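Our platform keeps sequence and structure together, in a single record for each protein. Such a record has a labelled line for the sequence and another for the backbone structure tokens. The tokens are whole numbers drawn from a learned vocabulary of local backbone shapes. The remainder of this section carries one protein's record, kept here as part of the documentation:
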Amino acid sequence: MSDLPDAPLHDWSCFEIAAAVRDGDVSAEEVTQHHLDRIAERSDLNAFITVTAEQALADARNLPEHRRTGALAGVPFAPKDLFDTAGIRTTAGSAQLRDHVPTSTASSVQRLVDAGAIIVGKTNLSEFAWGVTTQNVHYGFAQNPRHPGKIAGGSSGGSAAGLAAGLFAITLGTDTGGSIRIPSAACGVSGYKGSWGLIPSDGCFPLIESMDHPGPMARTMEECALALEVLGVMERPTPTLAGLRVGVLHPTPAADKMAALGAHVEDAVLPDYGALFPLFAAEAADTHREFIEERWDEYSPDLQAKLTLGRNITAMAYLQAQRDLEEYERICELELSHDILINPTIPCDLPNVADPETFELRLKMTPYTRAFNHLGWPSCTTRDGLMISGRDDTTVLAAALAWEETMEGRAVTA
């Protein structure tokens, strides 16, 4: 028997769970039951839309050899309820899809399952993934276990809250304007939005196809890197900050610390991308054109207001925004030539969970995040809330891994 962590199962990392299951020190069923008990204990968090207790236990009990020896053997997994899962309802956080049960599974989800992960349920999100708070009127407001009374962030709020509380060890989220990074920062976990197209998005209900980025979330960046390896899209790079040219977009104590670690740190300015909003709003509304025509009354008032904004974008404004995007990409290539860019993911106080999600609140929380969806550049959030972005996935992930190595103590649940 190998040495097991001196911590409850819900504080074990993906690496620790999988190693123990592969070595026979603990069964996948035992791990799954422990996390299902934890999910029941913390139902107050509204982290889940659907819990698949019976199915998860049966899966764990009958784990085939290739999965029992996989990189994620027995690891509890809860994808955002935007990803199709065969036989498990996929609601997209909406009323329109409340009873939708797909017949196939998104390829990104399937790859983690094939490596041994056990789906314990589907996590709560902002309605149709458009929001920064996960104040879902259909399935409940996600609560923040680390900062009670504050938002869990959005749109992948249930994923971040569930990770922080130890309800599962890994998840897949999506990010169209910050929806992996914002909740990760709010709940003190890690999330990686790779470059556009890095992770397949098939079987995932779109918000804006040209900006959607699926990505892993876990309690540490090491576990996100493991997920990227399992997904077959990246190998774990050697962690490094030394010698990197770092642009600081917003004051953060991380700047001085990175300089002490050998990085070349200087101030940088993110060009304003407000003129690109017509692209975001109009394309999001276009995604919903059939539901808008046929099932408008089933949207919440909040999403009705957002979609109305998109529907009212004129063709001239949309075409101008397309031209503005081309110019924006050109300017960023010239002015942001750094290896990585850093800033606090959420550069303001975390709002209260009862505060309404206004347009002004969204602007306040996303002054940096959405730019990297327009650009398609990789951008991630480490478990202390630092956002690290750049042009190259390997460089960004290597820097994030190196940064998390500077943190004391193991990642634990709230």
